[in-house]
Amino acid sequence: MSILTYIAGWPLLAALALVVVPHNYRVIIRAIAVLATLIPAVLAVKMFCQFVPGANGFQFEQQIPWVESLGISYHVGVDGLNVGLILMGAIVAFAAALCSWEIQTREKEFYILLLVMTGGILGAFASLDLFFFYFLHELALVPTFIMIGVWGRGERKNYATFQITLYLSIGALIALIGLIALYLQSGANTFDIPKLIEHAKTNPLPVNAQHFIFPLLLFGFGILVSLWPFHSWAPLGYGAAPSPTAMLHAGVLKKFGLYGLIRIALPLMPQAAHHWMTFLAWLCLGNILYVGWVAMRQKDLNLLIGNSSVAHMGFIFLGIASLNLIGITGAVLIMIAHGFLAALTFALSGYIYQKTGTLEMSRLGGLCRQIPFIGTALLMAAMAGCGLPGFANFVGEVTVFFGAWKVFPLVTVLAVWGALLIGALYMLRAMRNVLHGPLPEKWNSIPDASNVWRKLPYALLLASLFVFGVWPRLLTEKITPDAQKVVAMANPGLEKTTAVVISEIQNPQSSIRN
Amino acid sequence: MNASSITLEICVIALGVVLMLADFWMPAERKKFAAYAAIAALGGLLLISLSGNGVCSVFGTAFNGAFVEDGLALFFKRFFLVAAILVLFMAAEFSDRIAAGISEYYSLIVFALAGMLFAASANDFVMLFVSIELITITFYVLTSFQRGKIASLEAGVKYLILGALSSAFLVFGIALIWGTTGKLNFTELAAVAVQFEANKLFLLGVLFVLVGLGFKIAAFPFQIWVPDVYQGAPTPTTAFLAVGSKAAGFVLLLRVLFTAVPAVTAHWTDLLIVNSGITILYGNLCALPQRNLKRLLGYSSIAHAGYLLLGVAALNASGQAAVMYYLAGYLFTVLAAFTVICLVARQTDTEDIPALAGLNQRSPLLAATMTLAMASLAGIPPLAGFFGKFLLLKSVIESAQATHNHGYYCLVFTALAGVVISLYYYFGVIRAIYWSRETPDLSPISLSAPAKLTVWICIAGMFWIGLFPNTVLNLANEAANVLK
């Protein structure tokens, strides 16, 4: 059995096991949940280290036929595009399980849902079968709604639940229709993604069919990733979600749509992709500039982080829209970096909310003195969010800008303003309001993260951001060879140009460092 | 004439008669065992039919082609046997709420089953009419069986009046078809139907037959009876109505549309598309404000008739197979929901959604079953409903790409809207179970062993069909081959 089956299987198995554990065995329930996320995290690190960059085809593959008559099989495997995502997902899931101490009611049900979510999304990223790819994501998505509805916070909890359920169900179903149409149109009678791509090399999809299917995938996945103007569910939903849910969803689940676009939509429908990419580039300015501007006006820390997370999606879309090697590599880099970052910020804001009962920035202040560990971590997260060198986000954003500059100079110029100015403005202002200034008296006695277990999730996520920030080659050497395959498929007849681009970045991270 | 091919039906009718006769000698307190005896007998028949070398695996026709035994018939016969077994379990649990004549109740269920078995094999309009009447008339009685309850009597009367009306349409339609073509047998009719494509009387006849069948499957605009009858009828009756009667309507619809009048069907694509779309929207929208659980499931059953019509409207083999696959998943899902209602309502005496409050503390098993049933109806993986809806949508998109009919694309998006709407009320039920504010009654619900068995069978069925679709899908594909 492939290591990937274990990575996705342990959390699901543990969720089943939790069903029979009695309600009042709280310690055991929590221990099972933490262990069932720790194992995949360790396995994912092991897999990441064993991964051979640039090897031909997929690694750690496993295939079991499921429904022969439709060509559906359980098929998992990794290449450079998803190996980092799975590592990120597994680490974030472990951190989310560690942060779940804030859940005090109905713990058993919460951990079951958390584990289903973890197993589902890790399986979706590992899946090389179109059907399981969707199926496992849907399995991970539904618990999100329940978790926000039941363990959510704030007065607008019900409204947020309603909105996120509606938006994400519609997005997922539109994408499903696109995927089914793609399967039927390809004529390969298989849901196997590598086979579909092989088949498309000799029998490309007719252009008019591409023009119908590509928008379905772009907007279906786009809604799932909070593409402007379908983003309004995200800040509200994350604001109302319990922090482990927000961590997993904003960090990991949201990357599903982007991964789907890169893995499926770009290689299989190159003509339609070229047609829509200019449009997408302008839409992503909506994410970067408009949502960034909205973030500046927020008074609630969680809403600010939610909006900033939506704004970051704009950079990824810009990287995808540039349709070249540097851009796509940068997009995958930000997907991984943002996963750690979003999880970290939501975990920290969740801590503050637990201790103070509010996230309204005007009522907070001076917390850095009272809770130095959390405060410093939050400051570092904010710096990473602004794109400070040394953190993984910087590497990704710079790469994306290099990639997009060749294709959309104007959009890139505007986006850089968004990244540098708007991002820095709202983040720094928020940090000043929350961490510095006079400490209101009522917060005089709130405790800092006290022991190793409490500190571990934040430290782990910060360390990951830092490691990939100073040593991006760990990721780029894995991503580039496979991103190149996607780019080659997405630019048919442009092999020469691609070759030039590749020679320009023979050593990608050297240009990034400078 | 080949009478041996109706052995299964003869056995079932004999069982019904024996159940009635047993009433004379059985002491009142042991009547429950009559149900278990019937279940054992039907279980034996099911095993024989599943084994593949018994009476019903000999394919062919009988009675001058009026009765046909083929893959489609076999699929639905197994389906009806499973449904009847689970309904009888439910009826045994329900027996203490029926004042008198419980043996008759069991035997009427068995007679309705016989009607469904004949419907699965009907290859002739006379056979179609007789089997539908056998089903409908037994259901008139089954619906009004709780004679002490006004609601039950009201349901019976409503079902009787509207059922009689639809039968009139059906007979009129058959008469028009016979009058114009002179044929009653589906195979013979198919050979001549092309000549009558433009004959208005013939088309009216076909339309009237579809009206009669539309009543059985509760498609718009023949769905008016559903909410009241579902709410008022005794719960096992409602369950059998939702599963058996609807499936009987669908097997007949498939046979009429694709073996008797395929030439006409090909022209009526738009009618089927519009009908399916409106049924989906009507069922889902009307379910939103419901507070009574059985009424909610009534509207949800209309919506599901709409989803099933997707596969019929697709007019292709994968659509027909998807209909059968979906029905198989629907069988376990709906029976799970009704079994829970039947067991919970015994204690609380109301069937409103708030009555489920605190169910997870009263009986975790029932709460989990209801949750799974709702999730499966909503189409959430990994349960049966997800893969079923996937297959239905796939078949419609397949038709859309093959025919370039934009109506199909509109239909797909209508179905999508329906699914999203339905999430709201299905989640509402789950929410009432786990997270209601007031929990009026927390006394634990004790379950008898047969009740537990029923519930576990339904849960296993939902997961089995959702996670291992191969077996059922292959059977459905074989059955759909008949309709080519």
How would you characterize the overall build of this protein?
The complex is a heterodimer of chains A (514) and B (484). Chain A has 514 residues and is mostly helical. Chain A has one domain. Helix content of chain A is 75%, strand content 3%. In chain A, strands 1-2 form a two-stranded antiparallel sheet. The radius of gyration of chain A is 22 Å and the shape is globular. Chain B has a domain of 217 residues. Chain B has a two-stranded antiparallel ribbon with strand order 1-2. Helix content of chain B is 76%, strand content 1%. The chains are: A mainly alpha (514), B mainly alpha (484). Chains A and B meet through helix 5 and helix 6 of A and helix 17, helix 18 and helix 20 of B.
**Global morphology of chain B:** globular
What is the number of E strands of chain B? Answer: 2
As an assembly, this protein is heterodimer
Low-confidence stretches of chain A: 506-514
Give the strand order, joined by hyphens, for the main sheet of chain A.
1-2
Order of helices and strands of chain A: HHEEHHHHHHHHHHHHHHHHHHHH
Keywords:
heterodimer; A: 514 residues; mainly alpha; two-stranded antiparallel ribbon; 75% helix; B: 484 residues; 20 helices; 1% strand
Briefly summarize what is shown.
Chain A is mainly alpha-helical and 514 residues long. Chain A contains 22 helices and two strands. In chain A, a hairpin with a 4-residue loop joins strand 1 (59-67) and strand 2.
